TrEMBL record:
It comes from the Eukaryota. It comes from Hevea brasiliensis (Para rubber tree). This is Pectinesterase inhibitor domain-containing protein. CDD domains: PMEI-like_3. NCBIfam families: PME_inhib (TIGR01614).
Length: 240
């Protein structure tokens, strides 16, 4: 009996739709098509908005990590400064490898370059105390004294940049003095090499190879300080 009642109900619904006529069915179909188009349009607009937002807004990791931006600024600053040197690759590698916070300031970068030069010069100086060549012993001893003098010049340069509150880190006078001291240290290195060559030293090639980094680092430091004024202008800074 229940199945018969269901069938009877179905028949009533079916007959009701038929009584409404074909015109009513077309109206329903048109309404469904319009609704479908509107839904598609809304979904498309929502997707477009999401894509635009993802492309224009920084990611959560970037917005929560200001250090990423700082690191990028440091890298660009070092590159800008090192581009004035004769050995930009060794300049950038040596300075960027220092595990300290580097300010986007040519003076701060120059000071690091100078400290790196001092460290490398000490490494070369320690080599002469281990060399054993009887024929050029006198020249080797001269090199020890010469490198001590060169280190003294570089330490004078670093001392000139250590200033108290209100004092100027770099002035034109200081820049001229530092250029003279670094040039003197470079001359000292060459004097050592010349002395070993004159004595026909068997350790000459070893010394030259050891001096490669210190020679480049000194050259880089000299170039940076020589171009300090123009570098400060690139960073929109002025001489202190």
């Amino acid at each position: 009996m229940e199945s018969i009642n269901v069938l009877k109900g179905y028949g009533k619904v079916n007959s009701t739709l038929e009584n409404k006529g074909p015109h009513h069915s077309k109206t329903i179909r048109k309404s469904l098509i319009v609704a479908s188009l509107l839904l598609t349009l809304i979904i498309g607009l929502m997707l477009a908005a999401l894509i635009y937002e993802s492309n224009t807004e920084p990611s959560e990791s970037e917005s929560d990590s200001p250090s990423l931006s700082s690191a990028s600024n440091s890298v660009n600053s070092i590159k800008t400064v090192c581009n004035v040197t004769r050995y930009p690759a060794s300049c950038f590698t040596s300075i960027s490898s220092v595990n300290v916070s580097i300010k986007p300031d040519p003076e701060a970068i120059f000071k690091l370059s100078l400290q790196i030069s001092v460290k490398e010069l000490k490494n070369v100086s320690s080599l002469f105390r281990t060399l054993n060549d009887a024929n050029s012993k006198a020249a080797i001893n001269d090199c020890v004294s010469i490198f001590d003098e060169a280190l003294g010049r570089l330490n004078d340069s670093l001392s000139a940049m250590e200033v108290g509150p209100g004092e100027k880190a770099l002035t034109l006078e200081k820049i001229n003095d530092i250029q003279t001291w670094i040039s003197g240290a470079m001359t000292d290195q060459q004097t050592c090499v010349d002395g070993l060559e004159e004595m026909g030293s068997t350790v000459l090639d070893e010394v030259k190879a050891k001096m490669k980094n210190s020679t480049e680092f000194l050259s880089n430091s000299l170039a940076i300080v020589a171009q300090m004024q123009s570098l400060l202008e690139k960073f929109d800074l002025k001489m202190h």
